[in-house]
């Protein structure tokens, strides 16, 4: 699979706008989950596989390779860890995750109660 890069065509953008390249990467199965988990600290391949539950070793290996080539994850003595860019990305995504849990998801609960 082609690694999404700014300036090259990606899913949703023929011109490869940087945000679209990032969303293409993060939209791949388990990519965000890996970033989310690694924010807690380094993890081995096996620990990541346990965290991701249903992920195959091939998919995990592919995703880690993509995240590495995109400068978000790197190997370390303890396994895998977020790079500086990966930590910055998580810190940008975390407020969105909080909003999704506390605001957006609740709008569905409220709507379901009205039915």
UniProtKB/TrEMBL annotation:
<dbReference type="InterPro" id="IPR011991">
    <property type="entry name" value="ArsR-like_HTH"/>
</dbReference>
<protein>
    <submittedName>
        <fullName>Transcriptional regulator</fullName>
    </submittedName>
</protein>
<dbReference type="InterPro" id="IPR036390">
    <property type="entry name" value="WH_DNA-bd_sf"/>
</dbReference>
<keyword id="KW-0805">Transcription regulation</keyword>
<dbReference type="Pfam" id="PF01638">
    <property type="entry name" value="HxlR"/>
</dbReference>
<keyword id="KW-0238">DNA-binding</keyword>
<dbReference type="GO" id="GO:0006355">
    <property type="term" value="P:regulation of DNA-templated transcription"/>
</dbReference>
<keyword id="KW-0804">Transcription</keyword>
<dbReference type="GO" id="GO:0003677">
    <property type="term" value="F:DNA binding"/>
</dbReference>
<dbReference type="InterPro" id="IPR002577">
    <property type="entry name" value="HTH_HxlR"/>
</dbReference>
<dbReference type="InterPro" id="IPR036388">
    <property type="entry name" value="WH-like_DNA-bd_sf"/>
</dbReference>
<feature type="domain" description="HTH hxlR-type">
    <location>
        <begin position="17"/>
        <end position="108"/>
    </location>
</feature>
